[in-house]
Design goal:
By secondary structure, this protein is an alpha/beta fold. The protein has a domain of 170 residues: P-loop containing nucleotide triphosphate hydrolases (Rossmann fold, 3-Layer(aba) Sandwich), CATH 3.40.50.300. Helices cover 32% and strands 22% of the residues. Bound molecules: adenosine-5'-triphosphate and magnesium ion (MG).
Length: 320
Amino acid sequence: MLLRVKDLSVEFKTSAGNARAVDGVSFNIEEGKTHVLVGESGCGKSVTSLAVIGLLPGNASLQGGQIEFKGKDLTKLSRTEYREYRGSEMGMIFQEPMTALNPVVRVGHQIEEAIRQHRHKSPLKNEDPFKRSVELIDQMGIKEPEKSYYKYPHELSGGMRQRIMIAIALACRPSLLIADEPTTALDVTTQEQILSLMKELQNDLGTAILLITHNLGVVANNADSMSVMYAGQVVEEGPVSEIFQNPCHPYTEALFRAIPSLTSVPGSALHTIPGSVPPAVEFDRMPSPCRFFERCEYQDERCFKKSSVPGHNSYCRRET
Ligand SMILES: Nc1ncnc2c1ncn2[C@@H]1O[C@H](COP(=O)(O)OP(=O)(O)OP(=O)(O)O)[C@@H](O)[C@H]1O
Ligand SMILES: [Mg+2]
């Protein structure tokens, strides 16, 4: 197993009190596979991924759990040691590349910088960083790679900038790529191109991917396993094919129902989930016996009994 996240909890100090954004989250990622985190806004997907890559903001702290990467518990690492892992072992691409790229540095130089930082450890340490950067730009499917090397981020389209981000993230051939909503800011065609590029690179390099998305269509075509998150916890997890065929948690079911369908009657209302995710600052008075209880259409006395589901884990406490 490449990555094992076990009972991970993260708290933020805020003016309204402590907010437990991630509360006992566990999932695994196998080498070369794609694992997806889905769930509504504010469920803790980004915070989970930032904890894995060691980039939690200053007001956040780990409250427990392990992040085991290649058998080593990363929660025990110092900041400097973590920096070694970032870039060489793990790369990250963000939703909006314009905020992650340096606007005043040519994109080629930014790729080169990523290569130079971890060069001593890279299997490509004898390669010329300039040549390698141009090669990477070419691999990302960008035309005239040498000319593009000298461009500034604002001279490129959103899709091209995202390709540069992927090049930076993959420059040192990390074993894990974390992609937090990598395509939501892009049009559907570009989104498709970026996802197939990621898949192609994954096949070539054997990189595992932790993908965060709101788009369940993206999940169906691009992932092996998934965790459905709700209010800082995983409510259902397992192989994508299993969960799509047989969603067991009412929250997962509700998410699936909220997917717009081409076959629905024009003008008919989209399915939505009533209410909203309870805020993380209220973690000590969350709805019980399950955090989704108040929004769940199946809530009844059976919720208080535990059930188990063959094939994958659903943490719904309803007796089925
Ligand atoms: N810097 C911060 N300070 C305080 N609370 C934070 C901070 N960052 C995130 N949170 C809180 O942590 C919780 C989880 O946030 P997170 O960004 O992980 O959600 P998400 O699932 O990624 O949502 P989205 O789909 O909107 O990106 C939210 O309640 C959010 O308000
Ligand atoms: Mg997020």
